[in-house]
């Protein structure tokens, strides 16, 4: 960072003095070790020093088509750079696909992301060994570029309702792909519009006159030389979106398009030459690619949140506004308790989400290895937890990013602040890979089943048997975690009671379920929060942390746990044993004794904590969040890039405004 040598805002300089903990220790912790930090830094130098990967003008000033072309140029250049990357191909790819290094170069969505995040994983998870041998090397070498085409114009959530058909013709040993209506058109897949020439397509499999449900098919969409759509393929891009505008989300229709039988991905289920269908051991195995992405989305959201928090925290220590003590100099806005209340919970959340996502990643790897050996025991727990954390991290993450933006006042509304882009990425994750409400209901289904049948995986063990632990109000960390547990159990019980009440009234189970949705969603959310707070608390018990780092992380942990408790205190009313009086007592004790005290305790370390994320200026891509705090000069420099500032009078003045000024209307 060359700015470090030339200028440092005096307020930020002061914030950085006398840091009681070793920032590098936290950096190493987040990276996964000292060596990993060194590798990351080397990789960042390698990628970010390349002049050809820098934007000539800010992306906002380009047209829709030019934005796509420019991002594709950089994405392809990045792929060339993979070959010589000092960190090796896979770690480089991982870094580029994630929200950190990748978004420093590819600002509005990576047109090759789906190839790596969904197409390759789908081939690996759904293809037989022979199919992998045929397609994977080509995919890795970028001889072909693929996407994952599942969602249709008419259906995204309800996969059993997908309309695209793949009908087996035993005479030619081919499947015939067809989009029987406009609503059957694939709609949304990333990279589909212009980039991909292949796709894993989810379609209803028909053989011997019977529908066997949705299955994955490997389909060539475009000519490998000319890139023209193949006959029978109708393809295009769906147009501008709230964010991620350089990822060419597309549409796709099939007009009696034929593919060979062996392009059904047959790892879990098969269609034999004569059309005989061989069932999978579990019909949900064809949903496995989504499970993988839900897991990585949690990490992606966390990295994005770290950027937002860094920008907002540094800016809040540079920005001076209003009067705290009459007659005194205007204070740093970070010194207002109200500002700390906005920013310190999301700062703590970055740690909470990272630790929970790490647990989920470990579960994913274990479960996936077991599945490869034919053991599906961990699948329900993996499904439940991946849905829960994906929904929680993305919804809370999007809210926190918005709060970070608000905490920067007007300047946070500028495109160059980078908040619009970060928000666009994080809020997209609330919808894609399973709309969050729908995922909460999946989680609730698992919780209700566990509680009623008294059997379930590790993440729901607390629902089995009688709920143990103190029944009195306890403000220790363990006591508060217990309160979360009691709330989660209580909310599941309340939801079950609602279901049973509807049952007694004679409602069918599906109606009872619909009428209990509000309770079910609350129960699922309480479960997800419990998992996150337990992960945070347990992670601090283990691990080789120095005393100062343990202290600051423990403060953040405590703050976060109490923050959520206060935010969600209304939910305690749902749980019978918490009478109003006791709730008020808890609120009072917690708020006065702990929360506010913790805000004040963590406040002096806010800048040091975000510094320890070690996010380079190029990655933050925001004049508000730069390491040197030279906010005003940088905002001014950004404004100078506006095309409207390239002449003193714009040509439109002569065309429109001048005639108006001269006319009498
Ligand atoms: C050179 C080297 C190369 C190396 C390559 C290395 C690559 C590294 C890459 C690493 C990446 C790093 C990080 C990158 C991060 C970037 C991330 C950003 C990019 C993201 C791009 C995203 C693009 C988006 C894509 C999409 O959106 S795809 C479409 C997604 N669609 C959905 O999610 C649809 C949601 N709907 C559903 O899932 C289902 O329909 C439903 C679950 C809601 C309902 O289904 P159904 O009706 O069939 O089921 P029921 O409700 O009846 O339930 C029946 C039972 O089934 C169980 N169930 C359901 N689903 C699952 C499941 N998935 N798994 C297991 N079990 C499941 C239920 O629990 C029920 O069970 P029960 O009967 O016992 O109760
Ligand atoms: C940026 C982005 C990228 C995407 N990339 C891809 C991709 O690469 N490949 C791909 O195949 N798809 C992709 N998608 C599509 C995405 O997976 C779907 O949009 C998502 O699964 C939601 O489905 P839907 O749009 O049909 O919403 P709907 O299901 O129609 O949701 C509309 C509303 O109905 C509610 N609802 C629906 N069902 C229920 C229910 N059972 N109970 C209660 N409420 C319900 C929802 O909560 C929501 O409020 C992408 C989407 C976005 C935004």
TrEMBL record:
Record GO biological process: fatty acid beta-oxidation using acyl-CoA oxidase; lipid homeostasis
One Gene Ontology cellular component annotation held by this UniProt entry: peroxisome
Chief location bin: other
Pathway the protein contributes to: Lipid metabolism; peroxisomal fatty acid beta-oxidation
Residue numbers binding FAD: 151, 190
Keywords: FAD, Fatty acid metabolism, Flavoprotein, Lipid metabolism, Oxidoreductase, Peroxisome
Family classification: Belongs to the acyl-CoA oxidase family.
Protein name: Acyl-coenzyme A oxidase
Organism of this sequence: Daphnia galeata
Lineage: Eukaryota, Metazoa, Ecdysozoa, Arthropoda, Crustacea
């Amino acid at each position: 960072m060359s700015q470090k040598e030339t200028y440092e805002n005096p307020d930020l300089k002061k914030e950085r003095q006398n840091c009681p903990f070793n920032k590098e220790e936290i950096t190493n912790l987040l990276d996964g070790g000292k060596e990993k930090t060194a590798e990351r830094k080397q990789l960042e130098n390698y990628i970010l020093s390349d002049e050809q990967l820098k934007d000539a003008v800010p992306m906002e000033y380009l047209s829709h088509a030019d934005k796509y072309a420019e991002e594709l140029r950089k994405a392809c250049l990045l792929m060339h750079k993979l070959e010589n990357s000092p960190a090796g191909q896979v770690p480089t790819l991982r870094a580029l696909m994630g929200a950190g290094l990748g978004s420093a170069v590819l600002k509005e969505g990576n047109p090759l992301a789906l190839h790596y995040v969904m197409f390759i994983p789908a081939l690996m998870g759904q293809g037989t060994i022979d199919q992998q041998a045929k397609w994977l090397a080509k995919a890795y070498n970028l001889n072909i570029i693929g996407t994952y085409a599942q969602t249709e114009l008419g259906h995204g959530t309800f996969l059993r309702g997908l309309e695209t058909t793949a009908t087996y013709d035993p005479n030619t040993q081919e499947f015939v792909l067809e989009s029987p209506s406009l609503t059957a058109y694939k709609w949304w897949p990333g990279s589909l519009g212009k980039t991909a020439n292949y796709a894993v397509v989810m379609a209803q499999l028909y053989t011997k006159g019977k529908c066997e449900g949705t299955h994955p098919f490997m389909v060539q969409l475009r000519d490998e030389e000319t890139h023209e759509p193949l006959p029978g393929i109708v393809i295009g891009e769906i147009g501008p979106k709230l964010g991620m505008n350089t990822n060419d989300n597309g549409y796709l229709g099939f007009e009696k398009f034929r593919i060979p039988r062996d392009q059904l991905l047959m790892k879990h289920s098969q269609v034999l030459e004569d059309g005989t269908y061989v069932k999978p051991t579990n019909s949900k195995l064809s949903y496995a690619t989504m499970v993988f992405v839900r897991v990585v989305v949690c990490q992606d959201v966390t990295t994005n949140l770290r950027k937002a928090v860094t920008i907002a925290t540094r800016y809040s220590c540079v920005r001076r506004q209003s009067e705290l003590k009459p007659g005194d100099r205007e204070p740093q806005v970070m010194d207002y308790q109200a500002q700390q209340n906005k920013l310190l919970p999301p700062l703590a959340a970055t740690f909470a989400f990272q630790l929970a996502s790490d647990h989920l990643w470990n579960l994913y790897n274990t479960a996936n290895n077991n599945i490869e050996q034919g053991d599906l025991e961990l699948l329900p727990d993996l499904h439940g937890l991946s849905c829960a954390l994906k929904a929680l991290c993305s919804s809370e993450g999007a809210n926190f990013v918005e709060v970070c933006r608000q905490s920067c006042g007007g300047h946070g509304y500028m495109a160059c602040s980078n908040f619009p882009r970060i928000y666009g990425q994080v809020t997209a994750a609330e919808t894609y890979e399973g709309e969050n409400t729908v995922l909460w209901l999946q989680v609730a289904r698992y919780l209700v089943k566990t509680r009623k049948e008294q059997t379930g995986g590790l993440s729901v063990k607390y629902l089995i048997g009688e709920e143990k632990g103190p029944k009195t109000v306890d403000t220790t960390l363990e006591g508060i975690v217990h309160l979360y547990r009691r709330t989660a159990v209580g909310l599941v019980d309340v939801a079950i009671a609602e279901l049973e009440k509807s049952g007694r009234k004679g409602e069918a189970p599906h109606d009872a379920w619909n009428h209990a949705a509000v309770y079910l969603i609350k129960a699922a959310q309480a479960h997800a929060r419990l998992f996150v707070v337990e992960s945070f608390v347990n992670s601090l018990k283990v691990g080789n942390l120095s005393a100062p780092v343990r202290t600051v992380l423990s403060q953040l942990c405590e703050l976060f746990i109490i923050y959520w408790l206060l935010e969600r205190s209304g939910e305690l009313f749902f749980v019978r044993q918490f009478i109003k009086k006791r709730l008020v007592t808890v609120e009072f004790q917690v708020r006065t004794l702990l929360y506010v005290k913790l805000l004040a305790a963590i406040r002096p370390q806010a800048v040091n904590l975000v510094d320890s994320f070690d996010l380079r200026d190029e990655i933050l891509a925001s004049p508000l969040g730069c390491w040197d705090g030279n906010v005003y000069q940088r905002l001014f420099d950004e404004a100078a890039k506006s095309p409207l500032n390239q002449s003193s009078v714009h040509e439109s003045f002569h065309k429109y405004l001048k005639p108006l000024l001269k006319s009498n209307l």
